[in-house]
Write a structure and sequence with these properties.
This protein is mainly α. The protein contains 7 helices and no strands.
Length: 147
């Protein structure tokens, strides 16, 4: 396992947030499966969610209005948009990286809960959590399969 919670995920998250402001229609179509909870950095999640909300409402999207919606500095969002310039065509790949890393973090959390269930001797929780971990492993396998 090479991608855990402490792994630097800033690049993919930042690129996905920046790309969503640059080209919302194209990016949002590619990242439908990414959830706010998939992000390590809540600022990037807030930007993606603000872009989604404004796009759904038919409102204009740029760094200033998105920053206002998120309580962030527009200059910070502009930096994400252009330094380095995210490739809009890679937004699906950025989303995949964010999603895969989020699933690994979920696996770590499930493992902790599983250990707690073992220590408590709770067979019901143990069975439920083991099934959740198997399902998550299947999802990870699907995410890591080459497209």
């Amino acid at each position: 396992m090479t991608e855990l919670a402490d792994h630097p995920v800033d690049g993919a998250e930042r690129a996905l947030a920046g790309a969503s402001v640059l080209a919302p229609r194209r990016v949002l179509a590619m990242v439908a499966l990414v959830r706010a909870s998939d992000f390590v950095d809540s600022r990037y999640a807030a930007v993606l969610e603000a872009v989604r909300a404004r796009f759904a409402a038919g409102l204009p999207i740029d760094a200033i209005v998105v920053a206002d919606a998120c309580g962030l500095d527009p200059a910070e969002i502009q930096t994400w948009m252009y330094d380095p310039l995210p490739a809009i065509t890679c937004a699906g790949q950025y989303a995949s990286i964010v999603r895969r890393r989020a699933q690994w973090r979920r696996a770590l959390l499930l493992t902790d809960e599983l250990l707690d269930a073992v220590l408590r001797g709770d067979r019901h929780d143990l069975a439920r959590l083991a099934a959740d971990l198997v399902r998550l492993a299947d999802e990870l396998e699907a995410l890591e399969r080459p497209a």
